[in-house]
Design a protein that fits this description.
binds adenosine-5'-diphosphate, binds magnesium ion, 353 residues, T-fold, single chain, globular, four-stranded antiparallel beta sheet, alpha+beta
Length: 353
């Protein structure tokens, strides 16, 4: 269960209330439930808060037919979630992990292919084959444990090469996957397309730290998103976003502490241990949610220097890196859309090409 690390600051419900409901929902093991539905006085706004993919999601859609469209979007999230839940033995991913040969849906085929390509492009920093390690560390059950070095190496060595061609897939023996690093981003892309095709020109989809916006607010101004302070309550800054996605990965979302060390849920595929390369939060902003989601995880693993190098050789995204020592690095494309919160002492450096 993760908490939102990037939030829509103009949102009308308080985050604390949502998190309270989220815990309750999780305890009752309800994977999806409608917790809150409200329409403002203008009939053309529809808000829906649901619990899916292990997080609280809130959908706000403006325009004619907004109620029907938010309901349709939530049904679509439910469908996608039931394909990808790694711990669910009936899902496509669950069946793959169980050693079955699976006839994949087009969405799963696309998401796995994309993830493998991003794995190559990030030099292995994104690796969907870490599910056995996630289980070993206890991140799937919250029964945490620091594994022995040789156990980690044993599990890393069990990863086999995945070759996907056509729509049928069987994983190499011992290989288990988890699409947690990319699923919400891709879901956002699917919803974006669905709603745009239905004529929506103003919407904000908060998929638990993955924010996707269609156009601007109904008055045409950009949406204002709060970037959470990784080490304190409140936001470290506000990011303005018009049409696109912003995705944050942080070491404060899901972690445990043992003997004074923080162990977070993003693993370094080279070591099998939680990534510890100097960053505590990475926000990636771009057109495509799946790219932002894959990169927020991968750049977190890389650390500032490699993330900066990666950004220079790709021109399809912008990023905000927050280092453990508190410094903030922002790529030049966000220079005028990011504002540091009052009272924040962090040093901000702009990364230029
Ligand atoms: P969140 O899902 O909490 O918003 P991320 O998008 O960064 O955060 O995804 C983290 C999830 O991805 C983990 O919970 C785990 O399931 C999986 N994961 C962890 N490390 C990696 C990695 N290096 N590559 C791919 N997936 C990972
Ligand atoms: Mg991610």
């Amino acid at each position: 269960m993760t908490s939102g690390s990037i939030i829509y600051v103009d949102v009308s419900v308080k985050r604390g209330e949502l998190i309270g409901i989220k815990r309750l929902t999780a305890m009752a093991t309800v994977t999806l439930s409608v917790l809150f539905t409200a329409c403002s006085r203008e009939a053309e706004k529809s808000e829906l808060t649901i619990y899916a993919m292990d997080t609280v999601m809130s959908l706000t859609v403006y325009g004619d037919d907004a109620d029907r469209l938010t309901a349709q979007a939530s049904a679509r999230i439910n469908e996608l979630s039931s394909l990808w839940a790694a711990g669910d033995t009936g899902s496509e991913v669950g069946r793959l992990n169980n050693g079955e040969e699976v006839e994949l849906s087009p969405e799963t085929t696309e998401l796995i292919s994309f993830s493998l390509a991003m794995g190559t492009q990030t030099d292995g920093a994104l690796d969907i084959r870490l599910y056995p390690l996630m289980k070993e560390w206890g991140f799937t059950t919250s029964e945490y444990n620091v594994p022995e070095l040789n156990r980690l190496n044993e599990l890393l060595d069990m990863r086999g090469d995945i070759h996907i061609s056509g729509s049928t897939l069987a994983l190499p023996q011992g290989t288990e996957i988890d699409l947690g690093a990319v699923a919400k981003g891709y879901t956002g892309d699917i919803l974006y397309e669905m709603l745009s095709e239905a004529g929506v020109t103003s919407a904000i989809l908060d998929l638990g730290g993955n924010i996707h916006v269609i156009g601007g607010k109904p008055d045409g101004t950009p949406w204002r998103l709060g970037i959470k302070d990784p080490r304190a309550d409140g936001n470290i800054g506000v990011l303005e976003l018009y049409d696109g996605a912003a995705v944050t990965s942080g070491d404060y979302e899901r972690y445990f502490e043992d003997d004074g060390t923080r162990y977070c849920h993003i693993l370094d595929p080279k070591t099998g241990r939680p990534a510890a390369n100097g960053l505590c939060s990475v926000t990636v902003v771009g057109k495509e949610g799946r790219l932002c989601d894959a990169l927020s995880t991968a750049l977190f693993v890389m650390g500032s220097e490699d993330a900066e190098r990666y950004w220079r050789s790709h021109n399809d995204f912008q990023m905000i890196l927050i280092e453990i020592d508190g410094d903030i690095l922002i790529t030049e494309g966000l220079e005028h859309s990011f504002t540091l919160s009052d009272g924040t002492n962090s040093k901000v450096q702009i990364i230029r090409s």
